[in-house]
Amino acid sequence: MLFLTTVAPPATTSADAPDPIRVTITVGMIADIVRNIGGERVDVTALMGPGVDPHVYKPTAGDVGRLDNAQIIFYGGLELEGRMTDIFEKIGRAGKPTYAVSESIPEHLLHPLDGTTNHHDPHIWFDVTLWQIAVDSVLQRLSEFSPGDAEYFAERAAVYHAELDALDAYIRQQVATIPEQQRVLITAHDAFGYFGSQYGFEVKGVQGISTSSEAGTADIQELVDFIVERQIPAMFVESSVSPATIEAVQAAANARGWQVDVGGELFSDAMGESGTPEGTYIGMVTWNIDTIAAALKPQSPNTP
Question: How much is the pTM?
Answer without folding.
Answer: 0.87
